[in-house]
Each structure stands twice: as structure tokens, then as C-alpha cells.
Amino acid sequence: MSSMSSLLTSVSCPKKKLDSISAIESEISGQKRSRPLSVTALVQQASGAAIADMAATMKDISKSITTHTNDLEMAMEILNEHDELTTIQRLDISDYLADPNHLNHAIVFCKLYVSERKYWLACRLAELGHQPVTVSDQVGEMEVGNN
Fold first, then answer.
1. pLDDT at 94 over 60
2. How far, in Å, CA of 88 to CA of 94, rounded?
3. Which of 21, 35, 36, 131 falls 20 to 30 Å from 106 in CA-CA distance?
């Protein structure tokens, strides 16, 4: 029986050695994973985040451009209904409204009533150096310009 016992011990010893080797390899590989990222990996992470940020920014810019284009198109259609303007005046107001710094003016222009819009046009034309303009509405006439 003692030979059987020693046989079992000799068979189980290599298994214990294999288990301890596997545990050491697992610990070593776990340490490799917990090391800080390499420079290449950090650059890849940063560039991935930058690309995502750029995509979001481009989406916002595209939306802004579309909104500005729609407002400007509507303003131009309304502007073309004002037969009292000369071609030069219409072109100057068009340039004014197309300026990205005047986006809000295009929106306001579109929302005004006709009589208010005429006054707004007279004020913008005066700002742009045109001769004073007489604006008439239901109340009466008013001269707008270089006063």
C-alpha cells in the first residue's frame, strides 16, 4: 500500500507544479495589463476622441449654416417684394443680411410686419450711407436717414 501512496504523491506533484506555474503566468499577464498605456495607445485614444469632437462640431456647424441659409433665403424673398427699393439698395441690403455677423438681422427682418420692415430697411440703408428715405405707413410719413 505504501507503494501505491508514493505513486499517488508522485503523480499529484507534477499537477501541483503545473497549477503553480499557471498561477504565476496569470499573475504576470495580469501585471502586463495593468501597466500604463503606451504612447501609441494614448495617441490613438486622444485622436479617437478628437475625431468624435470634430464630428460633433461639424454637425453643429452644418445645422447653423442650414438655419442661416433658410433665414437668408426667406429674407431675400421678402426683400424682393419691396418694389420701392432700387437695385443698388436691394443689393446693399442683401449683402448686409448675408454677412454672418448680421444673422439675427435676417431673422428679425423676416418676422417684422410690412410697415415695420419698411422702417427697418430705411434705417439699414441710412447706416449703409444711402440718402434719407421717406417711409410711409397708415399713420403718415417719416423721413429716416442722415438727420
1. yes
2. 10
3. 131
